[in-house]
Amino acid sequence: RVHNGVIAQVEVLPAWTATALLEHLMAKDASPFVVIADELAYEHNLGAILRSCLGFGVDGLFLPSRRGAGISPVVQRVSMGAVEEVPIVRESLYATLKQVRKAGIRVVGADMGGRPCSELDMTGALALVMGSEGAGLSEKVRERCDYIVSIPLAGGLESLNVSVAAALLMYEKRRQDGWFMPPV
To answer: Are the CB atoms for 52 and 170 separated by under 8 Å?
Structure first.
């Protein structure tokens, strides 16, 4: 809305399918790390998760085709450019989860009732599933996860904002990978 007198002509963001992105990641001979966000209602949370995805080297973000926030100007602004760097797939999450598991990627869901994240081996290929702001993981999505993890909290808190929880779990995955270790 506020253009400050600047206009730019840019390419349309690439449209990825789950199959194309997973094939691309597997061809790179890497251990893919993807985030699946189910029914996020708030654009600010989606933008913040995208920014964390970029910061922690996430290979792609999967969003449901019909439910939840989409890529809007608010999401683009909050992501601080990450929306242009992190591949985004918008498809049925059930079909996506099936393809992710078929590719040999473990599916880890975040929920208050799960195992503490530091007790689960999160190294290697991983799909981190984050539920909606209010309800968390839907039962159908939860059933499709290999593991459920939680973030231990003090002070009587039950949960954190979904974007904060996602960032902490991304950090824990990368910490376990040794990603932050200085090169030898």
So the answer is: yes
- Looking at residue 184, what is its pLDDT? 62
Residue 130 phi, psi dihedral angles, 5° rounding: -110, 135
Strands (E), the chain: 33-37, 60-63, 88-90, 106-116, 126-130, 147-150
| Residue type at 36 in one-letter notation | I
The answer to whether 46 touches 74, Cβ cutoff 8 Å, is no
> For residue 119, which of 147, 90, 160, 97 has the smallest C-alpha distance?
147
* Residue numbers in the chain where pLDDT is lower than 50: none
Closest CA to 90 of 152, 151, 13, 29: 13
DSSP for 117-128, written as a single string: GGGS---SSEEE
pTM, 2 dp: 0.90
Q: State the pLDDT at residue 99.
A: 95
| Identity of the amino acid at 101 | R
- Reading phi first (left if > 0) and then psi (alpha if -120 to 50, else beta), residue 73 is in alpha
Q: List all residues 6 or more positions away from 25 whose beta carbon is below 8 Å from its beta carbon.
A: 32, 34, 59, 60
